[in-house]
Amino acid sequence: MEFRYLGNSGLKISEITYGNWLTHGSQVENDTAKQCVQAALDAGISTFDTADVYANTKAETVLGEALKGERRESLEIFTKVYWPTGPGGKNDTGLSRKHVMESINGSLQRLQTDYVDLYQAHRYDTETPLEETMQAFADVVRQGKALYIGVSEWTADQIREGVALSKELGFQLISSQPQYSMLWRVIEDEVVPTSAELGVSQIVWSPIAQGVLTGKYEPGAEPPAGSRATDVNGGANMIKRWMRDDVLTAVQGLEPVAADCGLSMAQLAVAWVLQNDNVASALVGASRPEQVADNVGAAGVRLDDDVMKRIDDALGSVVERDPGKTAEGAPQTRVA
């Protein structure tokens, strides 16, 4: 495993971050989830990402149990706040001071830790003044409940505003967590250059495009039984955007590229996002321990310019690059 600094800070995190969005507390049994976490630890992963909304708080509980007994100082634990949790009451969502302060306390209890290394705004809250949110985050940091602050799926302008306020309030906003993969490159034109200017790193999710970039989905064929594309609870709605024959055909063209590099398709996909200097870590999940070992094989891999060009040539026009997609996919009102 290799490690990178997160933003303009002294915090180092593993190039591969283990995330439990679609698995812990919902898709896989708790024993299997714990085995996956142990496989991550065994592979040298020290960074773990979750959120209070995942499986309506159950994912945090499973991760806390799985990491119990590990040396806390050797881990970097991330979680998030924004989406509805609990019974979904009027204040159980968003980035109001009330929800932020209550949510961090709940997350720490479930994770069985006194602090998280990174506390992230899971989306931008259009109904709460940004000043209120940032003041709440400043207080969370001053109380020692979080060491650093990050955001997820914010636009370049929103990141710029957030960083400016964080500096005024005396804390560090150091990360952005967007979707990013060979197929989904919408952050490259605006979010990445703005972040690089401001000392913010990307922790990217879905680098394998919900499994599409493994090559297991073939054009004109039914998805394999038990795969994510067939599992409503496991992300079938997210993956359907890529389940088109033109996309799947293009992805099949990556097989010889991966083979020539001595990598699996998944490793090639993860290694590709790590070529971006503004990416500090790639988030990977797993429903089986052996998947962790495969993904970790991408750590430290450097792809030369010829390989990067072959990837671009294979995928061609199926790549989504429109920077407006970040704002387009964001909630316009607070979700209840």
UniProtKB/TrEMBL annotation:
Task: Give yes or no: UniProt keyword Transmembrane helix.
Answer: no
Using the record's annotation, list all stretches that form the NADP-dependent oxidoreductase domain.
15-314
Single GO cellular component term: cytosol
Question: InterPro entries, from UniProt?
Answer: AKR, K_chnl_volt-dep_bsu_KCNAB-rel, NAD(P)_OxRdtase_dom_sf, NADP_OxRdtase_dom
Alphabetical UniProt keywords? Ion channel, Ion transport, NADP, Oxidoreductase, Transport
An MF annotation (GO) of this entry: oxidoreductase activity
Q: Does the keyword rRNA-binding apply?
A: no
A Gene Ontology BP annotation from the UniProt entry: monoatomic ion transmembrane transport
Question: Which SUPFAM superfamilies does UniProt cross-reference here?
Answer: NAD(P)-linked oxidoreductase (SSF51430)
Give the record's family classification: Belongs to the shaker potassium channel beta subunit family.
Q: Which PANTHER family match?
A: HYPERKINETIC, ISOFORM M
Q: What is this protein called?
A: Potassium channel beta chain
